[in-house]
Every structure is written in C-alpha cells, then in structure tokens.
Amino acid sequence: MKRSDRALNITSDNCKPRDRAYLLQYEESLKGEALKDPILVHIKSRDGLVLKGRLYKKQKNKPRAVVIAVHGFHSGGLRDMGRFADMYSRNGFDYLIISQRSHFDSEGEYLTFGAKESLDVLDWVDIVRKIYAPDIPIILHGVSMGAATVLIAAGIYDNLVDDNSKPNIICCIADSPYDNIIGQIEYLLGKRSNITKKIAIGLFKANMRLRAKANASDASPITSMSHIKLPIMFVHGKDDRYVLPDNSLRLYEVCKSEIKELLIVEEAGHVCSYVVQPDEYEKTFSSFVDSIIE
C-alpha cells in the first residue's frame, strides 16, 4: 500500500470521538521527562531506504534491556509508542522508538505489512547491539501492524539463532496483531461479494509484488508461530472491531513457545488496552518480562 501521512495531522481536537482518549494519552506523554532528549539514530534498509529512530537512554547504569518499539499502520513512532515510555523507564529499560519504512521521517513510498518491515526490525536489533554491547537483551514491542511485524521478525530471528547460543531478542510484546494480512483484508472487505473480494485481494497481491517488491504471503505472523521459541505476550482489546481479538486468540493457540501470555482487556478498542487499563497492562508486562530476564 502507498504511503499516507494524513493521520499524523489528526489531534485530540479534530479526531473522531472514539479516538480522543488514545490521542490524549499520546499528547500527554509528549510532556513527560521520558520522551525528552532523544538520540537520533538511523539505519539503511536492505533495499536502500534511510530509516529513522529515536533512542532514549534513561537508565543511569546499564539497562536491564532495550525495547525496540514499533508503531502501526499509517501512524508514527511517538504517536503509538510514546505512551509506553514511562512504563519502559520504570521497569529499567532504555528504548528505541522507530519510524517504520514509508512513515513519518523514514524513507519509502510503499509499506508491506511486515514482509519487509520485519527485516528492518532485525537491522535495528543489530544497531542496538553496536550501540550497547553484543549481548544486550532486547525486547520487541509492537502495536497493530507493528505487532505483526515484530512477530514475523521474531520468527525469522529464531531460525537464525543456534540452539546453543543466547539470543539478544529475549521476548516479544504483540499488541493487537493480525494473524495474516490477507485474512485481515478479507475481514475489512466485510459483506462484499466473493467475486469483489477475490478481485480486491488479487489487486492487493499484485500491487505488493510489482510496486512494493514483496510477497503478501510473507506478511503472515501465524506462519511464524508454528516454530517460534521466543517468549511472546499477546495483548488485545475485547472490543476491537478493526482487528478482531480472535486474531490474538489464534496466534496464542498455535504459538509453540513454552513461555506465552494472553491479555484480553475488557472494553478496549483497537490498540487501546493501555488507554483503558494502563495499570493492568504494566503489571502483566512487568511480570512477564521479569520472569524472563535473569
């Protein structure tokens, strides 16, 4: 799909009522100490795009881990992930909030719903290792498309790590992921006829292949779940009508990791679990991560 930055101009003053609490939480987070004084960093993607990020070194000593925070579709790093900055800092983490390809200040005209973005995330992992230490623990945390992206990245990473080696990525937090992009598009097409859906999906696949140079079949987190070993925490709002919570339920059920968690938040819409129940979210997050970090 082609880049669009229009959503970044929406604020709590001009948004739809359903989005106001989400945007207010983001806007409030910008005023806090946790998002002050970022270190600007960048990488070059494997297909030549310059991708930007903001690294927040908030721990006086060595952090317990570094979180790579990954935003969602047609959004931005600070907009989606800045709200978690205090949570990261309280738990002893530094954090890198990235701009995905074709979003905000990163280059690119086409996004690929995790197919290429997952490889970008692995390149961000390499940068974190260079900035800190080769053995620095890393947590991947994404929302919506970002959640799908980190799950795909974790699956690729798991295949690269030798069974006898200690991986840098110690766990993933996937908030409101879709289980595969084709199924998500079929859902969003709603009650349209099967012929209309078939044509639309065919055009989507062709567009991905010809313009974005990616395969839609690679944007499928559920494919990774059948062999993944990394600990995974899934979060979903029970009232999410954009990406149904059934997606996280399916991912959780097929996930082969020995350490996995599922948090379903009552009365929360899409990526709004931390808005509706911030204390429950942080308690579950902290307990989950504490069980993994030595």
TrEMBL record:
InterPro entries: AB_hydrolase_fold, DNA-binding_regulatory, Hydrolase_4
Top-level taxonomic group: Bacteria
Domain Serine aminopeptidase S33 per the UniProt entry, residue ranges: 62-155
Record-linked SUPFAM superfamilies: alpha/beta-Hydrolases
Protein name: Serine aminopeptidase S33 domain-containing protein
Organism: Mogibacterium diversum
Taxonomic lineage: Bacteria, Bacillati, Bacillota, Clostridia, Peptostreptococcales
